[in-house]
Specification:
Elements: H1 2-21, H2 27-46, H3 53-74, H4 79-109
Length: 110
């Protein structure tokens, strides 16, 4: 009975490692992310003189957040570094959303 159990455990472990190795991001998602990064940086560069400080900060945070997401997907870092990069990207993307809300509030309610 125990030998059967061990065989089942080995079989399940082999299936789990095979399933984990197939978790690479799709190429189409990367193309979309690269397009969004280029588009955001292009807006930031071309509209620099027309943007106020909140707009510049918002687009800068958005660009940095998306670049960190891209680096996190493609770099071979340890799990600790991946967690740090996830935190940094989450912070910068949330900061850009907060700056967007502040900009909308300043523009329409003040």
């Amino acid at each position: 009975m125990s030998t059967q159990y061990k065989k089942i455990q080995k079989k399940n472990a082999a299936q789990d490692t095979a399933a984990k190795s197939n978790l690479k991001p799709k190429a189409s998602r990367d193309l979309l992310l690269i397009f969004l990064i280029v588009f955001t940086v292009l807006i930031l560069v071309l509209a620099w003189s027309n943007l106020d400080d909140l707009g510049r900060g918002m687009y800068a945070c958005l660009s940095v957040g998306m670049i960190v997401v891209y680096v996190n997907r493609h770099a071979n870092f340890s799990d600790k570094v991946h967690k740090i990069l996830i935190g940094v990207s989450l912070f910068t993307l949330c900061a850009s959303i907060g700056l967007l809300g502040l900009s909308v509030y300043n523009q329409f309610f003040m």
